[in-house]
Q: What sequence folds into this?
């Protein structure tokens, strides 16, 4: 679990979704569920509810706990809800992209939200505009809504399934009409979506930690290509596509998801610890202590320590009281040595040979800073070990991995990189090691090997230049 | 100028628009312009700008001075802008209806905002939905945008004019593309819209006070049915309709507009003073002092005092420090006598026969309170004089006059009403008197005489039950 | 009633006090009472209450409606309270000076607040420090508390009266112990303090408008030199000094107090109107309209208009939505003509000979701006008439009249001043005229004639350089 | 490092102090220094600075990052500063107790702040009041200020030293005059205070983490009974008492201090890890995993895991996005299973025998909740191991350990307690074990053994009923 807001690393999850059906105080429970997935996005959040008669919505920029309060939650009536947390893009695309969207239509209003990225969105926009559609956001979510309404299917489920066939890319959609909740995943299963039960109702969520948070019981993952429809008659499952495969985003394990979430049956903390163990096997080094970069690399560091027999130490501290409103140190202050988010622990690292475990390297600037700080605090050696392979290609499926140009491993070999970040040695976990650590699950590892599971419709160089979710 | 937010009277203006073309710091100037029209709506506000390349937008719920700050204004780049202030509906329709809207389209994005009300909006929504449109708000503004894009005209101005023909009702629209500002009024000229100059640029505004505020010079009013197009080549005028007429909303003079604004060449303060004079002629009464209800009735009270020779006195005070965040007195506090917004001045009214001038009576509750407070403070007699005719019918053109059932004059005769509010006598200005006071301008006085200038498409009983602008 | 916060004039009231005894929800009523005196100071505010067992306090910087809310008011238990509003000093002396002070003492805690200024405070501080006292503010209020505790009197009332004898200057003190409320005025009666009744309880207030606000009935003014003690046994009155006289601050009538307040039996609006009438007699001029500077000069303008027969017009508008959080126009914006607080009404003043009534001139800069704006809007002539005499000396009694150097009338004759502000003529009300208008009440007019009713202990040049209350 | 604000455990540090001398932007650096000690208190914070001419202060209720901003920091001029963070008392004693205090005195103003608790404060207050002192807070800090000024010593350092002799209890004081910074510790050294260097200046701080945060180099701890005076001539050391001893609060190691701080030369994380190791030796148990309660017990859990050879697992997660403004789950929500701060990780603990390491048990309610949550998530056994001895007595030296009645170990034996919290076994670290783990430093362990190093002046039952710092 990492506060992407205040981390200077350039790897960002894009969004999380949460839905609930047939449970009293659906908005309040959505609040807690979304709160537990705050790490997936802090730019904005919203909830749409239904009391079987009307839909109600509230959304705004900011974190869950600031956007919602007792007053506005109490106006979100009903026992059905969908909600969304949205990641902060650089461009600050603003309020218009905060989800869920609430579409008004004489045949029935509906709420819609989305985690992922549609790769053929430009083509679809053009197509829809030619039929008279106009858009009020840059979000892919709106495209899906227009497809549903432009379609010729009169049955809503059929219209949804027909529309999904147009969409290429990664998605987990939640759609709420006044009486029905729909949940669906793309045919490669790139983004996670799980389903659980609470009392007599149902809960769907990007991560299972949200189920645990509200006391719901995990039932199963929604499958690639599956459309789950929940209404008064219970759960109904069908598939919009036949050629499905399991290609869960590896980064969900490595970096994004909370350690207490399970993905495809594998706990995230456990997966990371296995990565650390594998890394210790692949790249041992003589040293005094193992240190993890808080918070996302701690599990891997324990794994490395256990496997290597070298003691794990708390050599780096994360400040818990930072936040959006914080006064950042000026350059003059930084030069004085003022630190804000991460502080090495002098007494622990001084005079020691340190193995520093991080989960990934994107631009390399954070790594260089960490190594420099450790050495300044007296570390004799810093051996950097990365618990995932080098990122050599951008993501097209909803992860902001920075643009191609900024990916340091796409532009620099291992030795050069080691020198650049000032480490005494550097090693990345191998692809095979990662596969093994993750129990050979079906994974998307395109950012490590350019093996994209879908067509791309655009160039590597263009990836991640907008801020879609 | 009245703070409709905190007034318990039930008469509400709905929105104001402001636009600027070819002036540096367009967003900043829009901020001041909108601020001067804050009395037209306090629910929400927004600005969309263009720097000839891109459109930028920011909007939120709240007053101008809270929604905008140096940081977000500086992101609204460019020398072209449109902005909007929105009135607070009871239903709290929320953020989705705050304007301007910013529509994304491959043929060019555009911003759009609106003052008024479209009476055939339900019919148009149905029509557009049948062609595949979906809506994200309950605002009429969105309908106009869809009409433009659904139309077959390839030239933008032609598309606008074609679309306007579909719209029945009252409107003043501002539309901004990356290089052009369009301003248009309905064919009855129900809502005001003026144009002025500032340096080498142009300014359009619902009220002329916004021109004065930023140092712009008034040029002329936009005419009923006129579409003004402002681009690099200057101003271009054309008409979308031929059967135009002047039917300016009389309430703009009586209540809504700021006293320093001019409408159709007549200053609002002057108009109100003339109403007061006319009222003194029509309904003289022996008394000691003339008192106006602050702030909107002060001008009429001066006029009455001058004409009657009875001295004007400050017999009622309005508290300047109230506001949205204020703790309202509980019922127990009110029973103790705690007053918040309006306080009678005991020393001025005690032992006096008071002529109390108000601009209008909607539900009658405020009037009853005022009379009671004056008597409690020792007034011997209270003669109520209203500087406009009785409101007997709801407005369909963007004024929230309460529903038909709540209009006291629609349901009660003069004597009964006088008794109900506890006044010693009561008189309303006649329609003829109002016409004369307003120099026989072409006016819409439908709320006084049911003489609606358009078809209505719905029943009197249904008016003002939503919160459109 | 004037918003000193946002007025660029340099005349500031310093503080208001409010107290209540034996009325349920004393804190809530204090809130409304203080709110009605918000014009006397916006820097900070506080309330101390007693439930006969304990004292409770809350205070902070800011306006009444922002500092207090339901949550903190509900913690201020009891049926006894004192409260304070404090004026904003330039120096931003901050939280430490916000009142009431709450002193902890084993013989009983007490709350204390104060309107006025002690002229021998430096001498008293020195004396007290020599006896071991230390201070935590720059407020005179603290001095009085130390005097009480340093004194040898064992009876609290005696200790108060003994201590008051040390104090030279202007004051209205309220002091609350757990069971008794004390209210006292200096022996010249420089600052106002009235007493009223509400149900079975008592209310004391700097202005009577606060009594009206909460439904209390005015009983009488507390007299110069009087100490009123209110406890379970009722009201007890005594005097700490024998050589008392009536020297009420003339500025309370001219500028500070709300028009609906009565001071020494004379209503403020009425007093101002009489000043306007007197001014019309002393300084008539041929012109078309009379215009007052909102809000404090409107009454005088009506009086001038009535006496002269020249019509009063609303030639200047004050923006009601300004406030502390407002984005001030930059210099560039000002040069464009952006106005914020006061706007002339073009249609009213254009082509007219205007008599502009203001209540006073301090530094002259506001006057110059007003004249310039009117002429820019087309006024043919601007004749300035000031409803009080020239201010030629600073105040030592709690009014921030700017320093001696800044007082334009102390440094410039009438003709020079007229030229400087750009008016076509300029006239001040005479001292005799003011006396007559105010019914020959006993007044302090030291700022007009240097006739100070007390010793000063410092030089004219030193006045108003701190920010005491 | 633990967020005491939102932890439901009942053990609270009371305050932290920070000072800086002869470094530019002293206020800004104090901001960062205090921010790094935010865990020591979140109720309020303040900074007083000196530019050698004047003292400047700002303080308010709330966290460092909310109380300060660029605007108010920039007004705190000078190269000398002291600052304070204050712990949140239940009683909400409010603004009056927020520090530093800024005392005004003709012989020179001074700022003063304090961590600790004076046990004879009632006696001293009475004594001072008998000499005429009055107090404006319930803080011990004010007592010290009065003692200094009541004393007969003319030299300031002598006055300080004389005054310190009156004070019985625990304290670390910082005092700033316009040109000198004084830092002093009580003669038992109960509360920590370290000194470091930055450029040519000096830094003093309750914890060394604040030195690291701003890039300062640790020099040494201030000694029990020492008074350090820092002025233009450098550092001057002297002692106010001769019978000094080392009795550092053991809880600083166990719970309060940040893991990256060093106390008396021993790193806190290292100390905790040693406690964990010792605990594993004293109380081994057969189990599958070791889990620590985040954040303060993680180090002990690592130590236990290493020593026992049982793997450490992340079996419990702390939500990073909680905060003061958070909407707490209602009882109904809690019953549904909604968790906020701590969540067990189902996949990690399910089917496992868990050793749960916590740093201490105060009331026992948190422990019971944790055990219940783990079992609900499928843990087969939960063996609780506490890395410190049972707390059987309250603290009188500035730690809020709850009242005597609430201390569960003061009222219940081990077996009964084990049953009450529902654990399968329970063991506390022995006193001897703790001593050994902390390298036999001189410690105050009164809360474990009632061996108080000072007289108490009050009864055990009275401890921690106020909220002093």
A:
């Amino acid at each position: 679990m990492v506060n992407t807001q205040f981390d200077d690393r350039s790897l960002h999850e894009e969004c999380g979704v949460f839905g609930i059906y047939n449970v009293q105080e659906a908005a309040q429970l959505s609040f807690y569920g979304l709160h537990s997935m705050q790490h997936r996005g802090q730019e904005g959040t919203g909830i749409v509810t239904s009391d079987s008669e009307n839909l109600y919505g509230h959304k705004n920029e900011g974190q869950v706990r600031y956007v919602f309060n007792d007053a506005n939650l109490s106006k979100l009536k009903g026992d059905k809800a969908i909600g969304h947390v949205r990641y902060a893009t650089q461009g600050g695309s603003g309020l218009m992209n905060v989800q869920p969207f609430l579409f008004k239509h004489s045949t029935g209003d509906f709420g819609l939200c989305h985690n992922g990225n549609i790769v053929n969105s430009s083509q679809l926009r053009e197509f829809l505009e030619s039929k008279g559609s106009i858009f009020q956001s840059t979000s892919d979510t709106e495209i899906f809504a227009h497809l549903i309404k432009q379609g010729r299917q009169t049955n809503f489920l059929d219209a949804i399934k027909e529309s999904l066939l147009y969409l290429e890319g990664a998605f987990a959609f939640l759609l709420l009409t006044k009486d029905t909740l729909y949940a669906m995943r793309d045919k490669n299963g790139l983004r996670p979506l799980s389903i659980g039960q609470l009392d007599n109702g149902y809960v769907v969520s990007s991560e299972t930690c949200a189920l645990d948070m509200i006391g719901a019981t995990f039932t199963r993952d929604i499958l690639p290509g599956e459309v789950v429809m929940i209404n008064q008659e219970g759960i109904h499952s069908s598939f919009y596509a036949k050629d499905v495969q399991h290609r869960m985003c590896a980064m969900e394990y490595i970096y994004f998801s909370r350690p207490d979430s399970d993905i495809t049956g594998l706990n995230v903390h456990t997966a990371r610890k296995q990565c650390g163990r594998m890394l210790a096997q692949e790249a041992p080094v003589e040293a005094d202590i193992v240190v993890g970069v808080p918070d996302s690399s701690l599990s891997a560091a324990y794994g490395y320590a256990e496997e290597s027999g070298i003691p794990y130490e708390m050599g780096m501290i994360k400040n818990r009281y930072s936040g959006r409103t914080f006064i950042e140190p000026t350059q003059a202050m930084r030069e004085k040595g003022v630190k804000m988010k991460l502080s090495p622990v002098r007494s622990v690292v001084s005079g020691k040979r340190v193995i520093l475990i991080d989960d990934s390297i994107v631009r390399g600037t954070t790594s260089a800073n960490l190594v420099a700080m450790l050495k300044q605090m007296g570390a004799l050696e810093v051996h950097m070990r990365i618990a995932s392979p080098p990122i050599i290609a951008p993501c097209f499926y909803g992860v902001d991995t920075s643009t191609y140009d900024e990916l340091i491993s796409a532009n620099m070999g291992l030795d050069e990189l080691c020198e650049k970040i000032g480490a005494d040695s550097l090693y990345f976990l191998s692809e095979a090691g990662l596969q093994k650590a993750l129990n050979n699950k079906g994974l998307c590892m395109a950012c490590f090997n350019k093996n994209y599971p879908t067509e791309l419709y655009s160039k590597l160089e263009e990836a991640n230049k907008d801020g879609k979710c």
User: Anything to note?
Assistant: Residues 319 and 340 of chain B are 7 Å apart (CA to CA). Chains B and D do not touch (no CB pair under 8 Å).
